[in-house]
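Instructor's aside before we start: the two examples that follow are unrelated to each other. I chose them only because their records fit on one page, so don't look for a connection. First example below.
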Amino acid sequence: MTTGCKSTTVFLTILCGLVLTTLGVTEQWPMWAWATLSVLLVAAPVLAFRVAALRRSSVSVAFEEHLTAAPIDRTEHHVSRVALPSQWNDYDFLISATVRWDALIASGHGRMLNPAGLAVEAVLDRARAITEQREPGRVSLVQHELNGVLSSLLPDSTGQLQAMAEDVRLTLHEHDQERLDSLAGVRKDQAVWEHRRKYEQSKRKYLGEDVLKDTGSAVVWWLAKNDEQVGRTVEDLGMLARLTSAANDTDVPERLRDLIPQPRGEQDSEELSERQAAASERAPTAADHLADALNALGLEDGDTQRRLLAKQIADAIRDQEQHETADDLVRRFDPPAAFAPDDGEPPDSTGGATRPASGI
């Protein structure tokens, strides 16, 4: 009983004595009643103190027995960067964790001298069963999986304890992580290259087997590409015919060769051939002979000396009354200066006025 309880008991005893004394005086109790009242007032507190002491002793013993009946021997051990196999050879996970365990009743396997070793072995066996089926590239996901699997207390293989793990952290060797990042980059580049290659193959197949299969298919495709501009498509028929023939490694059909535009060099060669053929059909003139002479002297077309020399020869021939031959020379070798635009008289070779051309 506490001090407060004792004080309360004494106070109540005194109060009850005063009340009973007042009642006894008023009622004029006999002497034996007063003797009984005195005994009760003294015995009541003593009896209360005795009962309280007995009750406290029984509660304390029961509480102490309850506290010491089933002591729990809970301990822990930290492991750091222990290698566990992954699904890929030579790529190990590194696990770090805090291992906790509870000892159980001995099961006939001998005295347990190193419970930490048994607990760590049990936790690593459970973790290895998970990691050896996982790819090393998913290290963060496997870490969360292990935190969930190892969070429960489960018995070890001997049955002497039950173990669990907290704060599980899973990593890889730095060089292994660099290799995995490099392999991931190569796979991504290869996938992009493969998609591009397939796209190019598909495009070549479309152009070769569909668009440029023949000239008709190319014309239809070109017409659709140019918003049905028929005039432009007709102008490009020669180009489409050449493109189709080149794509199929064949010659342009005879019926389409007239549509093929000839290069400028070939046109100039054909025109020169035509002029040469026309010149060979007629007899050479004085202008032809003079041209051969000037060419032999190295005076090419456009040379000022060639023009001046030809004009002087034309003037000399004009003095011989051969006006037609002179005019022919002027027209061929000096067309802009053949006649002046004002009076129709050819200028002199020195820039002055010339004699009138009487034969024109």
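Example two begins here.
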Amino acid sequence: MSTTSAFTPTTAGRTRLRNRLVMSSMTRSRATADGRATAETAEYYRQRAGAGLLVTEATQISPRAQSYPTTPGIHTAEHAASWEQVVEAVHGAGSAVHLQLFHGGRIGDASMRGGLAAHAPSAVAAPGKTYTPAGLVDHPAPVAMTDAEIRATIREFADAARLALGAGFDGVQLHGANGYLPHQFLGRSGNTRTDDWGGTAAGRVRFTVEAVRAMADAVGPDRVSLRISPAAGLQGVDEDGTDELYGEMLSALDDDGLAFLDVVEAPGRRDLTLSLRKSWSGVFALNPHRDAEPAPPHEVVPDALAAGADLVVLGRAWLANPDLDRRIARGGPYNEADPATFYGGTAAGYLDYPLLEG
């Protein structure tokens, strides 16, 4: 498949895309202290609206869902109103934008949640440390969620989806990857439950399936996507049976009419990617991993399309290259991302990456 096929218009559910390039969700920690998007947020996304679709940074659905400082929220009317400027900026530049809905579960210190204890499938702390403004601290032991608390959290995902659509977003995405709450339900190491929310593969995928369906009931399935990271093993999530788990999950959701499935490819697991592609009859978005030397985006994109992707999701490349679509079309050159400015700070490393024509 040629590189130019990346620029063929398409659709993902109800969202029309002018090309097949997607900007991945990336935490930037530049919201206000109370979780509102800013004018700078709007400009950041506007600059990158050459993507057919932009997926926003992870956005917490409740105070308890927050894991990191100065990340945005979508659980109050004020939050929703602050996002309207972002939607207007992206739409004005001719692109589409979905809001990623997030719950950190056991990840993050209580200081991130106003003193609230972390909620998780079981009372098992995540390994390692977590960042706070006061420095790195150990992850605290979470409180095991009751059945009622699980159901309430699923309703919060639905409520957040409604707020997002009310703010003008074209769709919403469940962050079911990277060791956060939905992913925590998948791993036996952090989910020791013996009720209907654990144990078997069907029990462990139940939270993700029911959260996606609650969001779909709220705003329509063709406005909902799901991000997953099979076999990633991030933040202490040991899936213990990846093929069975995701086979169960995709089998449950494949006929639901979702906008797309967003797969973060694990290192060395193109075989798994191809298997998931065969199991999913809808739009398949791939955030590809290259095992060899890092390849430039104009090589990564056609490789992902050749592997069966309908959409190609890139992260750091969009962060450092606001005009990445044009650079891919020309075969480069590309700016390098500066990790020192990834999280928090000023416009430096946020709004000042140079364009091709300076």
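The longest strand covers residues 96-102.
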